[in-house]
Amino acid sequence: MEQFLQQIASGLANGAIYACVALALVMIYVSTDHINFAQGEMAMFSTYISWQLMSWGVSFWIAFILAVLLSFVMGVVIERVILRPLHNAPVLSIVVVFIGLLAIFNSVAGAIWSYLIKEYPSPFPKSSFGIAGVIGPHQLGVVLVTLIVLGLLFAFFRYTPLGLAMRAAAQNPQMARLVGVRVDWMLALGWGLAAAVGAVAGIMVAHIVYLDPNMMAGILLYAFAGALVGGIGNPGGAVLGGFIVGVLENMVAFAGNQLEKATGVYIIGNGEKLTVALIIVIFVLTVRPAGIFGRVVVKRV
Amino acid sequence: MKTNRRTFVGGLAATTMLSGSRVAFAQKKYDDGATDKEIKIGHTNPYSGPASSYGVIGKCEEAYWKSVNDRGGINGRMIKFITLDDGYNPAKTVECVRQLVEQDKVLCTCNTLGTPTNTAIHKYMNQKKVPMLFVATGASKWGKPKEFPWTMGYQPDYHTEAVIYAKHILANVKDPKIGVLMQNDDYGKDYWEGFKEGLGKEADRVVKHVTYEVTDPTVDSQTIQLKDSGANVFFNISIPKFAAQSMRKAAEIGWRPAQYLNNVAGQVTTTMKPAGFENVQGVITAAWLKDPTDKQWDDDAEMKAWRDWMAKYMPSANLGDVNFVYAYSVSYLMEQTLKKCGDNLTRENLMRQAANHQKLRVPGLLPGITVSTSPTDFYPVQAVQLQRFKGESWELFGDLMHAEST
Amino acid sequence: MAASSKKWLWGLLAAAFLVPLLRPVLPDIVSDYRLFLVSTMMIAAIAVLGLNLLTGFNGQISLGHGAFYAVGAYTAAVLMDQANWPYWATIPAAAIVCFIVGYLFGLPALKLEGHYLALATFALALAVPQILKYKWLEGLTGGVQGIVLNKPEVPFGLPMSEDQWLYYYVLIVMVLLYWGAANMLNSRSGRAMKAIRDYAIAADTMGIDTALYKTVTFGISAAYTGIAGALSASAIAFVAPDSFNIFLSIKFLIGLVVGGIGSLAGSVVGGIFYVLVDNSAQALSTFAKNDLGLQFDLSAYTVFGILLIVLMYLMPMGIVGGVYYLVQSMRSSMRGPQAQQQAATQKQHATR
To answer: Rounded to two decimals, what is the model's pTM?
Structure first.
């Protein structure tokens, strides 16, 4: 029973990481219709920026805010400089550009900061919250921060004119242009926001998985799966999807363990937990092709 | 013999110099890749793709040979070190090594990196009779002079190291119940096989064996499973990132077993500090290289020489990376081997000399560890010493352990 | 246009068959190593062709073709290692196994489109190495250690080197597969495939069994890539699960896009690019360091990324698309001002 609780808690904590990155993926998807494979590496890079600032003596929260702002600028610049000229290129060409970006961010970070892992501090007080033995204070903090970011994004899209303009630009660019929305800047803004959310994700993750240039490589897939399971166009769904994937994966390992205990035969374990979790995710997607919370888009022929 | 070499390595290896000058009187003989002016050495290493973190090894070796050339080369010959990017992909390694052997015509390869990659070229090199020296992998299959007379390993293999841990556990822990965390690839498997062999009849002491993939974000789930098994010994076969995660998580959930950590993750700043010093007191590991991040070597003459060299030839490098000590030491061994060949630079003689080191001191190895090889012993470094973590540093204890690999 | 390109093709084929015979005469230029390199390019070209059939001609995205490559390679390796099959017999076996796997995977894939299909195939690429390491399959697959094989021997005592023979062997397989693909694409089925890519709903209303075509295309595509995997197992003489990581699939995708989506010739270019990209990235990075005197140490991986982005900038439709466009614009400028004027008036007519 204790293991069960701990596995759920650790699944939730991991899920919060996936949820954070999934949010960033959704941000770009909502505004540009692309899945950014370089999202994880961009988040990693932002985290290094905040680490560098801290090593120069800046305090955690100031470094946090600066890194998020710088990431926003970085996202906007990438959209304007690299992606804008490729506006009419086929989707797969854009995917290749994302892979190129991934390689560049990864190797440049490695060249500047080396591939050795670095510790990254946690902003949350050590003992004041968290449930001893089940979930640590940082893990709980990550869950909270994820929910706060989600709330902020929700409010932004729902209640501000800019958020409305962004949604309009994504859903129907021509109509939006007609009513005076500067659609191309909305795309850049989407990139900036995604990079900023990614930075938050990276900074939250880094304490748990440690800072290194490859820290996001595994996480991106989970985030991708989480975003899709929740419904790729829906920030709330993406967050829930991230949590689902995190818990599901641990539960597969847990079930495999119990099964082995009961029958004495190894059937599934840690080696297969990701595979099994993904099979479940894909099965869900074949039943509900738009994700759990996604709306089916009706196409007019 | 250059006089500055003495200051460079701290005045050791006098025996090597003697044997080197003895052969020097012999007639000049060359195979592909060696001339009066030049010796070509080949190397493969991932510089791109997910394993590019190993790239520093190739970079450091390149710098080492540059420094050798700056000192006038070896017996008057310049070294041309050709290092190619294989992206840690065996298929690519075959391509690269064939280029090195057939197009560039190197005399030998040195320290080609990776177990799957070296497995892919193992047969080829031995068919072509090209020396494949000091491969950079901890697998135990590289020292088989009978079947593969042209391949030689370098570091103590994982298998032997794991046997040592197993024996230590059986001798020192009362009623051990062992939990094992293992990276699910050939490196993890090698340790695991060795560990089981070391336990022998007591193999059922392992109560739980869990694995992780390098792509897993965390090993929290695995650590919880280990605790739940009721294990009182934790054998940790993982790379620094996951070693630190698991040791920290163990402390977090209140699991306090006796901990044995593999040498791969035995560095202070990349594993022990991120895990939290308070969480890793008493952890035991085996070492054979001096950890550049461990304060106890700050005043060590060899490590000082190494730092000076790094400052000159790799000024922007991160001195905390043990890979640099590794690359430096293996290049030093290669240099000594070539020196001993004198003017007889045939592939056969190179293998003969590589298999003829007697207690050669190589900088970077722990005090007392030397390189010895013979025509039947193709394992250059075999000794390790156990160390226990105390405060913020490792403390060596017990004797050097030599284990003959099978 | 069509006639001249046919002539080109025959010339190229003749050259491909005759040049290796020069090995005894020009051993430095036509060396065993170069023949081997070209063989690996052809193998990559077959794999990229398989992906192209699915993505380029049928519009289904796959980020996981490395999985089929792995299945093909392992089918060949296990048959050679455990059952002592001759290497040439493993090709049809790998094709059949991969067709079945691809077809079965195509069934749930029917329900998935775009990004969802990308995720599913991505997951497949991730799962296959894990399955190869699975505890109960270790006896067959050799687990993480992989399987070491023998290189194909020269048959009938032909006066050839192993690499020469390997080259011909791969070349013949590739020519047959290309011929098959070209014929298929020109047939009724090929047109149906492309119709589904261009407008699935319209294709459906025209009476095309879209589900059947999509799943069978998945199977054929997997079979092609699987054959490439089987060939590579023979050529490299070694298979291990960690050779087939997700990066392999991504590199096939890069080969496809850089070569040219929806173009058979593009697949060949993609195969060549696939093999050369690492070498050229490293060469460029040393060039930047030594000859341009760059202070910052540009790693090969950075150059690789820059290379991709620049290529997509210059030729968003891939190399074959870019070259085609270039030839077209050169032709129109060669035809002189007259032609341009003609074109201009035509345009005017059109706008009126």
So the answer is: 0.86
